[in-house]
Design a protein that fits this description.
This protein has 5 helices and 5 strands, in the order E-H-H-H-H-E-E-E-E-H. The relative contact order is 0.22. Strands 1-3-4-5-2 form a 5-stranded antiparallel sheet, with helices on one face. The protein is of the alpha+beta class and 148 residues long. It is 29% helix and 33% strand.
């Protein structure tokens, strides 16, 4: 597909990547159907308007999926998730534009693991999700696939 892997040895502490996305009704509907999470807070406007949020709330795991997208765009292929910790601070609503900022904060050379800090903000710069993730380089697996 034309992707270039960013090797572990070339990923420096302090490296950052920013990813932005505006969440649409279609995104939420599709994610609900694919995941099976049809909670009316996410899927039913009439129900959601009667809650403290007063409108549909985007699935937290959809926001987490955008963090995963940012990981892939930071490292390109050749890495796999081995850990994730997320703290949801505020809701995301349909129409919000979220910004994911990833920062490499630690490297574990023995297992070729990158530890990243993720901060997700909305268009008002309000923090909505914070967390850390761990990605492991799959050097041998990647080499076998690309050299076949």
């Amino acid at each position: 597909m034309g992707h270039t892997r960013k090797p572990f040895d070339q990923m420096e502490i302090g490296t950052t990547h920013v990813e932005m996305r505006t969440i649409t009704k279609e995104d939420v509907n599709t994610f609900g159907r694919l995941s099976g999470d049809l909670n009316p807070l996410h899927m039913d406007e009439a129900f959601a308007t009667k809650t403290i949020f007063q409108r549909r709330v985007v699935h937290g795991m959809f926001t987490a999926a955008i963090i995963s997208t940012a990981h892939t765009n930071l490292t390109d292929p050749g890495y796999v998730y081995v850990g994730q910790e997320l703290n949801f601070k505020a809701p995301v609503f349909i129409g919000d534009t979220i910004t994911v900022t990833l920062t490499v904060v630690e490297k574990k050379p023995k297992k070729k693991i990158l530890v990243l800090e993720a901060v997700v903000t909305n268009q008002d710069e309000k923090v909505i999700v914070e967390g850390r993730s761990a990605l492991m380089e799959l050097d041998d697996l990647y080499t076998r696939r690309t050299n076949s």
